[in-house]
């Protein structure tokens, strides 16, 4: 869960003859990803993860997805990679394009009003589900085999469908829009770095407030404004998301998952997990593994 001290800008370069970049990873286990985990870029990014489970870490939002993901990330919104060798997905398709795609004049046409608004909403990060994820994800996978003109027309149509879909979640709806190289963002990034290195132990408010260079009352107000949540709830959610990943990645005993995720006891872990996820850790693991493999893992 460690991240770099500051997000690193990724250089996005479309291949000659194309106005945007499409990458398709048919075998995620063979993927060599040299991009820094915690990164950003001016281009918007549309990602379809075909099956599997993993972590969403976009801006101030941290959560866990199951059975795939379709996500649109706005310009300069820091984010973490969505797949790794433990994710268990069948494939991943990534599309990166300019905030003025396909052109500034075209984007200002009345017919593109919904897409233009979609780009604005993507500043928070948008996760799509249901029919939208299933159908638009399949269309994204087909982009890699299309000729350039057909590819751009298909992408415009996909964006239009996403723009009018109601099957979405705004990931940073209650947080602020993180801006690169601002004092507010640097402070939050320092807190994220501290959390990623220390979430497994007890963290007094006085200590994390000191990391932010603030008094405890000022820190609590700041953190609530940034994330829409209290620090204690955010830390618990951070631990739960990590636990969800462990429950899917291996067959460790649930007691081990609890302690590895920063909880002091299995009973505390079970209560927090049920509150945030709506199921017990055992139920979550059983549902996840049946969905992925069609069979139950060995009981631990």
TrEMBL record:
Claim: Transcription regulation is one of the keywords in the record: yes
Coiled coil: none
Designated name of the protein: AraC family transcriptional regulator
GO terms for MF: DNA-binding transcription factor activity; sequence-specific DNA binding
Pfam families linked to this entry: HTH_18 (PF12833)
InterPro entries attached to this UniProt entry: Homeodomain-like_sf, HTH_AraC, HTH_AraC-typ_CS, RmlC-like_jellyroll, RmlC_Cupin_sf, Tscrpt_reg_AraC-type_HTH
Keywords: DNA-binding, Transcription, Transcription regulation
Domain HTH araC/xylS-type: 189-287
């Amino acid at each position: 869960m460690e991240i770099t001290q500051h997000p690193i800008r990724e250089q996005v370069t479309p291949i000659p003859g194309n106005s945007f970049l499409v990458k398709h990873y048919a075998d995620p286990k063979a993927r060599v990803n040299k991009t820094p985990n915690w990164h950003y870029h001016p281009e918007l990014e549309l990602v379809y993860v075909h099956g599997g489970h993993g972590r969403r870490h976009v801006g101030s939002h941290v959560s866990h997805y199951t059975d795939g993901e379709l996500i649109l990330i706005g310009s300069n919104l820091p984010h973490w990679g969505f797949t790794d060798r433990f994710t268990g997905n069948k494939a991943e398709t990534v599309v990166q394009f300019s905030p003025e795609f396909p052109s500034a004049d075209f984007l200002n046409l009345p017919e593109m009003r919904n897409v233009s608004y979609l780009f604005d909403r993507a500043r928070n990060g948008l996760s799509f589900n249901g029919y939208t994820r299933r159908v638009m994800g399949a269309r994204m996978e087909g982009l890699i085999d299309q000729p350039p003109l057909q590819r751009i027309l298909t992408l415009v149509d996909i964006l239009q469908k996403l723009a009018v879909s109601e099957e979405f979640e705004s990931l940073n709806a209650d947080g602020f829009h993180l801006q690169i190289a601002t004092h507010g963002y640097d402070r939050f990034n320092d807190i994220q770095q501290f959390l990623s290195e220390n979430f497994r132990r007890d963290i007094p408010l006085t200590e994390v407030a000191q990391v932010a260079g603030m008094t405890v009352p000022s820190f609590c107000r700041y953190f609530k404004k940034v994330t829409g949540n209290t620090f204690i709830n955010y830390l618990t959610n951070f631990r739960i998301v990590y636990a969800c990943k462990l429950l899917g990645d291996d067959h460790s005993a649930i007691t081990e998952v609890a302690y590895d995720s920063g909880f002091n006891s299995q009973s505390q872990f079970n209560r927090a997990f049920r509150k945030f996820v709506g199921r017990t850790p055992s139920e979550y693991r059983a549902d996840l593994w049946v969905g992925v493999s069609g069979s139950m893992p060995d009981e631990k």
